[in-house]
Design brief:
5 helices, 6% strand, mainly alpha, 45% helix
Amino acid sequence: MESIPKKAQVVIIGGGVIGCSVAYHLTKLGWKDVVLLERKELTCGTTWHAAGLVGQLRATKNMTKLAQYTSELYATLEKETGQATGFKQNGSISVAPDAGRFEELKRGASMAKCFGLEVEVISPREARELYP
């Protein structure tokens, strides 16, 4: 293990997704004196348990933009860093068990379209054809 510097411009405590993101973005902005401290392995705590799920639709347009940026960033990290990330963009499907939930999903789809997300409402028959 390398020794820890006696001083740094920025010291980040915790190597989860937030700590790693802060370190990554600071270095992308040109900061050279950034130290990230993690007691075990990077992303081994709560971040690891989140299973890497990145949903696109959030409650506000700004949070949705942040989720979109995150997805786009994850899609490029492996090529940029040479580190295998295992990131896959699979999309998702939400099933409405009743009419009330179907209305909620349609409202969410409408909001997603307003936020610039690709979304499609399909029938139960179409869902069975896509996912037998």
